[in-house]
Input
Amino acid sequence: MNDDCSEKMRLIAPCGMNCGICIAYLREKNKCPGCRGGNENKSKSCMNCVIINCEELNKNNSKFCFECTKNPCKRLKNLDKRYRTKYHMSMLDNLNYIKEKGIEEFLEKEKQKWKCPTCDGVICCHNGLCFHCNINLLKKRKKILGWEDD
Ligand SMILES: [Zn+2]
Output
């Protein structure tokens, strides 16, 4: 992969998750750098993620889970099931899309899918809200967002 490609997949995790729509990335405070970023401010669930800590992924230096001979493994299927049920997205669908059409088309599709109808910002997959337009509602729920009282 060249540098251009690495930059484009900066926010796309090996499992196919788009970190750009994740609550940990979108929040203002303690913003997570994404699964491919450094560990500083990385959310606990991402630090402990079975995919990021997957020995196959790390051993083979794979960029995405679809490069793995065990794909789709049980862990990925469980993660996929959770996200399909709760957050209207699928890791496996994302991975298939990236594999078939490439990262660029995937990013474009995601941009459209999660675009806020009001401000063209990003809708968070974890709460269905826009961090720009729904900021007051989000502040009320600051505990979920990891915001401290001030
Ligand atoms: Zn908005």
Remarks:
- Residues 116, 118-119, 121, 130, 132-133 surround zinc ion (CB under 6 Å).
- Residues 74-86 form the longest helix (13 residues).
